[in-house]
Amino acid sequence: MTQAGVYGQRLGRGLHVKEAPVLITRSLRSAELAVTEVRNDKPTSELSGSLPAEDAYLVSLKLRDYPACECWEEGRYVTREDIRAGATYLYDLKRDPRYVIDKPFHSLFFYLPRSALHDMARQPGAPRIGELSYEPGVGHDDGVIRHIGATLQEALRRPDETNQLFVDHMMLALTAHVAQTYGGLKPVAEPNRGGLAPWQVKRACDRLESDLPGKVALEQIATELGLSVSHFSRGFRISTGLPPHQWLLRQRVKAATQLMTVRNLPLSEIAISAGFANQSHFTRVFTQMVGVSPGTWRRETHGGPDA
């Protein structure tokens, strides 16, 4: 299937990088969101390539200082600014944003179609979002995007260990933040409707448990329940005390503890059966949640082997 958005290799080509790791989600109706990591430690001096014109924005978290960055829009020189690591920059893909690449760089780029921002405004009394507020080449000190970026950077390093629910959750949070901070969307107080109906909780939990590796998307479960993603996520957390991706991790650990009662079953097989990417992933998550490694827990609880 042909890629439509400016992310992954399509973004990488414009920035003259060969590798562009990407995480993709479709957590808002049919809008595809993505985060791409781009890095080049030995660039040649040239203007970045022209990116496909789209009704979408790139929100970029800079991970490395980039002094005297020469910025262009719509074929014209705009400004020259010192970029600091940790700063956030916005780019409107309709305006052909480009810059001179003549120094090493390292950034995360969040791809946000306007349709995704409009979906955030589909609530009573909320106006449609027009243009995002930004000045070309001028950065923002945005702690929320720094936090989300750092979290997703870890996920980009371990894509096999990252469940889709987690990516959906983080990208939904980022889109809501951008819509409110740069698009003027006012948070609307939600009526106190409580959590999901009991049948919805059961169906959602059954759906999650049937896919312990976490490949199912938030949007898919929400659609099956006749809810928006934001309504489902909020209601699920109220009903269970955890967001969906954390609830799923708990279920993986629960499944693993049950499997560890089988004395001769290797931990490597238990890890895969419980939905973890590998034994290392299993050990890390189990230790974080339980406080001891799987081998230690098994030995102390059932007297089984460590491996």
UniProtKB/TrEMBL annotation:
Entries under SMART domains matching the protein: HTH_ARAC (SM00342)
GO molecular-function terms, A-Z: DNA-binding transcription factor activity; sequence-specific DNA binding
Superkingdom: Bacteria
Coiled-coil residue spans: none
InterPro entries: AraC_XylS_family_regulators, Homeodomain-like_sf, HTH_AraC, HTH_AraC-typ_CS, Tscrpt_reg_AraC-type_HTH
KW Transcription regulation (keyword) present: yes
Alphabetical UniProt keywords: DNA-binding, Transcription, Transcription regulation
Protein's UniProt keywords contain DNA-binding: yes
Protein name, entry field: AraC family transcriptional regulator
